[in-house]
């Protein structure tokens, strides 16, 4: 799947994996600026393992893709799936918002393997 995935929403990437954050840590994913209510789509087939509000992430949804790969979608306006739901790649799972404390509307997105964050831009097709 590496290099063949699509970003989960249309918008502009404003913060990138590994770049410095204001509080001194680094970004473990991407922040994609997008309009409130825009579709958030699962990057690949999997099963929802978390779907609720979490401090610092807002409305958060996590999809387990198997083989210890997870995708994380945060700052959502609304969640369209529940824990246990199977999802297809490209299926709408949430809508963009600003529930995570970020002043901008957009999606915070991570890919994790064995619990370690990976650079999402290494996994998406930029064409």
TrEMBL record:
Gene3D superfamilies: Glucose Permease (Domain IIA). InterPro entries: Cell_wall_metabolism_enzyme, Dup_hybrid_motif, M23ase_b-sheet_dom. Residues 26-120 form the M23ase beta-sheet core domain. GO terms for molecular function: metalloendopeptidase activity. Pfam families: Peptidase_M23 (PF01551). This is Septal ring factor.
């Amino acid at each position: 799947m590496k290099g063949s995935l699509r970003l989960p929403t249309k918008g502009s990437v404003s913060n990138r994996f590994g770049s410095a954050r204001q509080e001194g840590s680094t970004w473990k994913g991407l922040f994609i600026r997008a309009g409130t209510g825009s579709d958030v789509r699962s990057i690949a087939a999997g099963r929802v393992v978390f779907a609720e509000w979490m401090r610092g992430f807002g409305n958060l949804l996590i999809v387990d893709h198997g083989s210890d790969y997870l995708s994380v979608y945060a700052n959502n306006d609304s969640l369209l799936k529940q824990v246990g739901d199977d999802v297809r790649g490209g299926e709408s799972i949430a809508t963009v918002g600003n529930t995570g404390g970020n002043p901008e509307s957009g999606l915070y997105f991570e890919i994790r393997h064995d619990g370690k964050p990976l650079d999402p831009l290494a996994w998406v097709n930029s064409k």
